[in-house]
């Protein structure tokens, strides 16, 4: 079982993802540089958090045009599991693989704190068997305010595409307290702002995030 971890200039959570996949969950992880093609035989692809291209122009807007994204888009549209965390979520929205957009936090301040999120909506490769569970994971972002028009939000709710929701209110102003959404032919593309890779070992204060990676590896296997 092999998971591709895409690295962009400015990514700073790619090593965290690699560590969780390989050393915590015991699966094979492989870095994929943004100028390279996706290698054959990947069971899932993950886009990490960070500040790709320094967040110039708009978060994720430049990374969306990285050469590797052509393959990521094709892989996702073919049903391959793709997960974007924080900046990775922003990139997936910019690439048109996920609906909505991530705006500046309503407070206009960077937020860095633990949050409680609830797994909801349709089952995805990242949330299999976890619906209804509440997970304690951290957020760390300045542009995590999920936005979509009311018609799109109603459709997302109705079709089970809201797969993570902040419990007790969003720390960033996200519409309807949305923390993550899914799309794709098999709900195989998932994006979320919280960082489960930073809450996958008890020594970090919470191992709740590990459940999501175990779900992904189980689905990929």
Automatic annotation (TrEMBL):
Give the Gene Ontology MF terms in alphabetical order. ATP binding; glutaminase activity; phosphoribosylformylglycinamidine synthase activity
Enzyme Commission code(s) on record: 6.3.5.3, 3.5.1.2
Summarizing the function annotation, the protein's role is: Part of the phosphoribosylformylglycinamidine synthase complex involved in the purines biosynthetic pathway. Catalyzes the ATP-dependent conversion of formylglycinamide ribonucleotide (FGAR) and glutamine to yield formylglycinamidine ribonucleotide (FGAM) and glutamate. The FGAM synthase complex is composed of three subunits. PurQ produces an ammonia molecule by converting glutamine to glutamate. PurL transfers the ammonia molecule to FGAR to form FGAM in an ATP-dependent manner.
GO BP, sorted A to Z: 'de novo' IMP biosynthetic process
Q: Which SMART domains match?
A: GATase_5
Name the UniProt record assigns to this protein: Phosphoribosylformylglycinamidine synthase subunit PurQ
Cellular component (GO) terms are: cytoplasm
PANTHER family the UniProt entry points to: PHOSPHORIBOSYLFORMYLGLYCINAMIDINE SYNTHASE SUBUNIT PURQ (PTHR47552)
Compartment annotation: Cytoplasm
- PROSITE patterns in the record, alphabetically? GATASE_TYPE_1 (PS51273)
Quaternary structure note = Part of the FGAM synthase complex composed of 1 PurL, 1 PurQ and 2 PurS subunits.
Q: Which HAMAP family match?
A: PurQ (MF_00421)
- Active site (record annotation): 86 (nucleophile), 195, 197
Q: Keywords in UniProt for this one? A: ATP-binding, Cytoplasm, Glutamine amidotransferase, Hydrolase, Ligase, Nucleotide-binding, Purine biosynthesis
In which broad location class does this protein mainly occur, judging by the first location in its UniProt entry?
Answer: cytoplasm
One matching Pfam family = GATase_5
- What InterPro entries has UniProt attached to this entry? Class_I_gatase-like, PRibForGlyAmidine_synth_PurQ
User: According to its UniProt record, which reaction does this protein catalyse?
Assistant: N(2)-formyl-N(1)-(5-phospho-beta-D-ribosyl)glycinamide + L-glutamine + ATP + H2O = 2-formamido-N(1)-(5-O-phospho-beta-D-ribosyl)acetamidine + L-glutamate + ADP + phosphate + H(+); L-glutamine + H2O = L-glutamate + NH4(+)
Pathway annotation from the record: Purine metabolism; IMP biosynthesis via de novo pathway; 5-amino-1-(5-phospho-D-ribosyl)imidazole from N(2)-formyl-N(1)-(5-phospho-D-ribosyl)glycinamide: step 1/2
